Amino acid sequence: MELLEREIEKKGKVLPGNILKVGSFLNQQMDAEFVSKLAKEIYNHFKDKNINKILTVEASGIAFAILVAKEFKCKMVFAKKSQALNADGSLYQARCESFTRKTVNNITLPKEYLDKDDVVLIVDDFLAVGNAITALREIISQSGATLAGVTTIVEKGFQKGGDKLREEGIDLLSLAIVDKMEDGKITFRKN
Amino acid sequence: MELLEREIEKKGKVLPGNILKVGSFLNQQMDAEFVSKLAKEIYNHFKDKNINKILTVEASGIAFAILVAKEFKCKMVFAKKSQALNADGSLYQARCESFTRKTVNNITLPKEYLDKDDVVLIVDDFLAVGNAITALREIISQSGATLAGVTTIVEKGFQKGGDKLREEGIDLLSLAIVDKMEDGKITFRKN
Q: Rounded CA gap, B85 and B43, in Å?
């Protein structure tokens, strides 16, 4: 998406270790008008799939997810990160490794928020190796709901999580795919 | 707000210890259309105050805050919860006690996201004793920005945080004020 790529070039910062910082407009600070335009693009791509629920994981995916849910006029649910496993049976739960922080969390969702009648779009702000998406898919699988597709704002193409989803035949829409970051210069994948 | 009070009566659950559970429609699961109506109400109340930034704290306030920011066509920023104090001077930070969990966190915000030219509306989903609001006000004070007002979806009137803000002359809009919860019955404050 041209608009997003220009914004990343203008405001994103490439830090050592292939870290792309876009917190000033896509994460801890977010321009509601700009991100609403991204959400409309998502809606146009997935609008014929009968999606009735948007699923994300706290915290930074929430703002984008609710704006996407607004386009679909549907509900947004987010999985919580939790240290401990919950044993009372009221939650779906899945292991989720953090690639950047080298930690393992569980993510959880009350069972009452997702069931076999739901058609779900997974929304997250970033996709790298894809561990959060894998954990969210595990939760969908436990619930018996249908996965309609996956969408992210920025995919780091060189970390291959997105390509693996495409090889599986999953309908993945990433609004910008960064294939290379070198000397502060960002190369986007051509459509 | 009539619409919200009816929804709380219909879907909210009162748990032991004066806990009001509204996670099924206002927190971990959120109906984007319904919450957008709440956000419009906020906009109508504060629209003449030249607000250019919405400030909240992660995680559950974020979804409501970005929908409010969308009404104001402005930016949303959220403070992060953090265990440790950060010493490099790049962050505003304030202590925040959790009344429910009896823990103390620091909340932080990069200095680049808030400065003296900003006119800020603090948005959060819940207001009880008001500790999160106090910490967010401390961050605004450090930045030199102007506080235009405070807004929450549900205020627990009996925990007095809201009344203290009103006594200070702060423009506080709570969309529903719960004055009593007894035997599962909720009493709302009359306007």
A: 35
Cβ atoms of A128 and A115 within 8 Å: the answer is no
Q: The complex's ipTM?
A: 0.92
Quick one: tokens of B102?
């009896």
Which residue from A94, A78, A92 is spatially nearest to A143, judged by alpha carbons?
A92
Identify whether the C-beta of residue A183 lies closer than 8 Å to the C-beta of residue A9.
no
Residue ranges in chain A modelled with pLDDT below 50: none
Reported pTM? 0.94
Chain B positions touching chain A (beta carbons under 8 Å): 23-24, 28-33, 35-36, 58-59, 62-63, 65-67, 69-70, 72-78, 80, 109-110, 112-113
CA distance B167 to chain A (A): 31
With a CB cutoff of 8 Å and minimum separation 6, the contacts of B153 are B4, B26, B38, B64, B125, B126, B174, B175, B176
pLDDT tens, residue by residue, B69-92 = 999 999 999 999 887 777 778 999
The encoded tokens of residue B71 equal 């009404």
In terms of Cα–Cα distance, which of B176, B61, B167, B181 is closest to B124?
B61
